[in-house]
Amino acid sequence: MYRQLFFVLTFAICIVSANPIKAVNCGGTNIKVGGVQRNLNEGVRLQRSGQQIPSGDSARALYPHTYNDRDGLNLARTCPGQLWEFPLVKGDQPFKAGEKAGPNRVVFSQTGDYCASITHTGASTPNGFVLCKNVA
After folding, report:
1. Residue 4 reports pLDDT greater than 90
2. What is the CB neighbour count within 10 angstroms for residue 43?
3. Of 32, 52, 36, nearest to 106 (Cα)?
4. What GO terms are given for molecular function (predicted)?
């Protein structure tokens, strides 16, 4: 009986903690699953190797960098631990050094798990974020 309960609880935890990657609409920009995956993979690769790349925006931010979840999106509920953000650009290639980062980001955990897609577009503050909408 305990063994069955263990398997049921383990399965339930896996379902609750999984964040499947989906196509999203971020402030009017549709990004396919493959686009989200490519940017996620590049952000995770850079983070794991201890590298950051500069954007071509006037702020010259470095990516990936920590995401502090100050917008009340509560991403830590499904992605515990340190969170990271990386530009989420549309197209066949992930964000590259020197490109404009744009308003969209992919958020991932320290372990490289996908957490969410977020955007500055439509946020209540200039540097705030809102969740992108999943699309079919």
Report:
1. no
2. 26
3. 36
4. hydrolase activity; lyase activity; RNA binding; RNA endonuclease activity
pLDDT mean across residues, the chain? 87
**pLDDT value at 67 more than 70:** yes
- State the number of CA atoms in the 13 A half-sphere of 22 facing the CB: 15
Q: How far apart are CA 39 and CA 21, in angstroms?
A: 12
Contacts of 50 (CB under 8 A, 6+ apart): none
Within a 10 A sphere around the Cβ of 81, how many other Cβ atoms?
A: 9
**Residue 56 DSSP class:** S
Question: Within 13 A of 6's CA, how many CA atoms are on the CB side?
Answer: 3
> What is the CATH T-level fold of the domain 21-134, as seen in this structure?
Nuclear Transport Factor 2; Chain: A, (3.10.450)
